[in-house]
């Protein structure tokens, strides 16, 4: 019997993908499936993403920064303020990465494992996921 709370009964690890672009979310989900071991859930807004993160364990969380309901960084800030620290790595994908955003992440010591600028290639995305999962 599998007792890992982030795995399904078939051993595949859960990933949450939060992106308001169905095209991007589907691309990310396909990329994760190509890596072979992830069960990916997709949501299209920040509020739904936060509710799922609080209620279910995930092996990896991939957040778009600019979503309706709540921005990716705001979700991460909210999670940082919870009494129980989230140990799940979070990747932030954004079409608007800039020095100010990176500075905010550093200054606020937000738990962001990686920031990926859109558009990205399949190879680049999968390399970053692999690095994040391995904790490097």
Please describe what this structure looks like.
The protein has 136 residues and is an alpha/beta fold. The protein has one domain (13-121): Rossmann fold. The chain is 40% helix and 19% strand. Strands 2-1-3-4-5 form a 5-stranded parallel beta sheet, sandwiched between helices. The model has no long low-confidence stretch (mean pLDDT 86).
Descriptors:
five-stranded parallel sheet; single chain; 136 residues; globular; 5 helices; Rossmann fold
Q: Into which percent range does the helicity of residues fall?
A: 40-55%
Name the shape in a single word.
globular
Total helix count? Answer: 5
Order of strands across the biggest sheet? Answer: 2-1-3-4-5
Structural class: alpha/beta
Q: What name goes with the CATH superfamily?
A: Response regulator
Low-confidence parts: none
The overall pLDDT average reads 86
> Can you summarize the main beta sheet?
5 strands, parallel
Instruction: Please write the CATH class name.
Output: Alpha Beta
Query: Which architecture per CATH?
Result: 3-Layer(aba) Sandwich
Radius of gyration: 14 Å
Number of domains: 1
State the end-to-end CA separation.
30 Å
Q: What pattern of helices and strands is seen along the backbone?
A: EHEHEHEHEH
In total, the number of strands is: 5
What portion of the residues fall into strands of 2 or more residues?
15-25%
CATH fold topology: Rossmann fold
